Amino acid sequence: MSEEKIEGIDYFVDLQPETDDFLSTVLDGLSQSQKTIPPKFFYDAIGSKIFDKICEAPEYYVTRTEIALMKEIGEEINSLVEPKSIVVEYGCGSSLKIRALLSALPDPAEYLAIDISKSHLILTIKEIAADYPNLRVGAICADFSDALDWPEQARSEHDQRLAFFPGSTIGNQTPKEALEFLTRMRHMVGDQGSLLIGVDLKKNTEVLNSAYNDAAGYTAEFNLNLLQRMKKELDAELDISNFEHDAFYNEELGRIEMHLISQLDQTIQVGGQNFEFKKGETIHTENSYKYSIEEFSELAQKSGFAPVKAWTDADNLFSIHYMSAV
Length: 326
Ligand SMILES: C[S@@+](CC[C@H](N)C(=O)[O-])C[C@H]1O[C@@H](n2cnc3c(N)ncnc32)[C@H](O)[C@@H]1O
Description:
Blueprint: E1 2-4, E2 11-14, H1 22-30, E3 35-36, H2 45-56, H3 61-72, H4 74-80, E4 86-90, H5 98-104, E5 110-115, H6 118-131, E6 136-141, E7 161-165, H7 175-189, E8 194-200, H8 205-211, H9 218-234, E9 243-250, E10 255-262, E11 266-270, E12 273-277, E13 282-289, H10 293-301, E14 305-312, E15 318-325
The chain binds S-adenosylmethionine.
């Protein structure tokens, strides 16, 4: 752990998640019968920028629908959240949605952003600090799948902590992992805390499939960037053009699955080890689980949050849940 001074930011704590275990995770994941690499490794500086392009793709309804809904429910959020709350955002990305939340909140005391993608996180919080000069702004570069302690640099005299987790990033975890994650989040916000979370809804398969297969090819670029990252950081020997992006809704499991499909029989090399692929064999790179309002409320209740209110847009594409600690 190290604390860095970033100009304009009140505090920046680096838990160094990137030095973590990319190599060992890849070696382990490629040794499984269904080859797998977890989605957190999408987000290097390049991956974070490509994700921003996905957010603007016309097929990717998630970002624009959630931002519009946040604006629509601003007054209700204002009446639910105590003044002087500390907002802690998990996986903030470009912090597109926090602006709608900060405008809605009654006099927030502090914004604490958490993300795994360090250089992108620094750019993002610098912008927030510049645009909200009266707000205390801090950040932790960390892997939120690890247990995180409340940083000593963050204000603690204010009891109200609001966890903000937009973008349906919760859907990247299996329901079991999501429950463990929400339980850790509940611990982090404490007994007076609350949660505002964006959750993508189950819907027509065609709408889902086209959202993860945008015509401009941004999602494909995002998925294939993982191979680029393996070449750059792990000296992997592979030809990216021998793989293609694939994403489809698995109705039985209620999730979008993203894969990289091998276009031919081939051998790739990572960390001195060979990995064989048959033509059509895949690396499973992401899940994006979809929930009904009831399914998600039921899951979250097991983690110690009680549902207070849930909203959806007029087309029932996306939901936002407000929950309080019990
Ligand atoms: C799907 S994007 C959502 C970004 C933004 N919250 C939004 O709604 O547009 C997921 C974000 O979470 C971050 N992230 C993914 N896995 C993470 C992990 N294990 N720990 C910390 N951040 C993570 C990524 O860097 C990225 O910024």
